[in-house]
Design goal:
The chain is α+β, with helices and mostly antiparallel strands and 368 residues long. The chain has two domains: 97 residues, Malate/L-lactate/L-sulpholactate dehydrogenase, four-helix barrel (Hypothetical Oxidoreductase Yiak, Chain: A, domain 1), CATH 1.10.1530; 245 residues, Ribosomal Protein S8, Chain: A, domain 1 (2-Layer Sandwich), CATH 3.30.1370.60. Helix content is 38%, strand content 15%. It has eleven helices and eleven strands. It has a seven-stranded mixed β-sheet, sandwiched between helices. A two-stranded antiparallel ribbon has the order 1-11. The protein is globular. The chain starts with 5 loop residues before the first strand and ends in a 9-residue tail after the last helix. The relative contact order is 0.17. Bound molecules: nicotinamide-adenine-dinucleotide. It comes from Anaerolinea thermophila.
Amino acid sequence: MSQGIVKISVDVLYEFMIAVFTRTGLSKPDAKACADVLIKSDLRGIESHGVGRLRMYYERLNAGLIEPHSSLTIVRESPTTAVIDGNHSMGMVVATQSMQMAIDKAKQFGMGAVAVRNSTHFGIDGYYPLMAVEQNMIGMSFTNARPCVSPTHGTLPTLGTNPISFGAPTDEECPFLYDGATSITQRGKIEVLARAEKPVPVGWVVDSQNEPMIDADDILQEILQDQAALLPLGGSSELLGGHKGYCLSTIVEILSSALQSGAFLFQLSGFDPEGNPSRFRVGHFFMAMNIENFLSVDEFKKNIGDLLRTLRATRNAPGQTRIYTAGEKEFEMEKIVKQEGVPVNKNLRKDILFLQHELGLDEFIFHD
Ligand SMILES: NC(=O)c1ccc[n+]([C@@H]2O[C@H](COP(=O)([O-])OP(=O)(O)OC[C@H]3O[C@@H](n4cnc5c(N)ncnc54)[C@H](O)[C@@H]3O)[C@@H](O)[C@H]2O)c1
């Protein structure tokens, strides 16, 4: 295969992820919940948040930054709302249980909203609205993250890449799913470029003097020293991050911290004031809306299907052959990856072999 890329079967990779998590102390159901989110990312072609992050979770679990035995505390609850403390458990476990709670509330009362504090990184944001979509609901998910994005007119990495995700069922095979960071790019894409030994495009990241940075390894190091920042969505030609991305990111930060008295901005750096590694205390916010409480599911699905088809049927820009709606590219990619396997380059392969060796997972064979 070209550029040292090999493809690993989805089933093999999924079982490997479960094995890594169980050997690191997670229960089988929790390991499965985590692997479900990671493999969904690989399936959807989101290289940044799948197997590429497995070593990161392993190292954080090993360092005691994440609790392997998940426990969630209900801090406050009403028929339609809840505040959850994740007690530093794996983010995917906290998030799937919290989203499920929002869905259950919506099933009973039409709406469910769950605010979470003291969680950890939960992978792709879009996984959780899809849980609601499967139940014929609209789902929304938000999370804050380690500071690496500057506010507009600033250069200090202050906000997380704070994604927003919104999913809804349609009368087509592919649900509508918007799932994206509120920064021009997200940290994971810089990691992917670093592994591929490729430069970062100008306009994604600036240094403390607002000059563009393009070396991926440098950027990942300098962010930790407050000397590099990703730019918020909608940046201008002067390389200043856009105010709309900055404000959307602030909204995500509010939803992920204020309702649950959770950590925000610099409190999520992963370091204590003495510079020692500390827990991340990530916050999330989940919402589910039961469509049946508004109109029949079929009517809604047709309404949204008509809307999306109208969008896709509009005039293409010169040189373009197709207009997409959110979630389509990833939905189509999922079919390809399922058949062909997950592409893994030489540096990612090194990480996989490192985990295999560390944990004695000799039963897995990764062919070249
Ligand atoms: N957990 C975290 O802390 C965290 C932080 C940031 C990002 N992430 C995850 O990283 C992943 C990637 O984020 P991203 O910002 O790079 O996403 P992206 O820019 O690749 O895609 C964002 C959205 O745009 C849609 N899209 C793409 N091209 C389109 C087109 N031509 N027309 C219409 N829609 C189109 C996609 O379907 C997707 O929903 C997401 O899954 C996100 O949740 C996680």
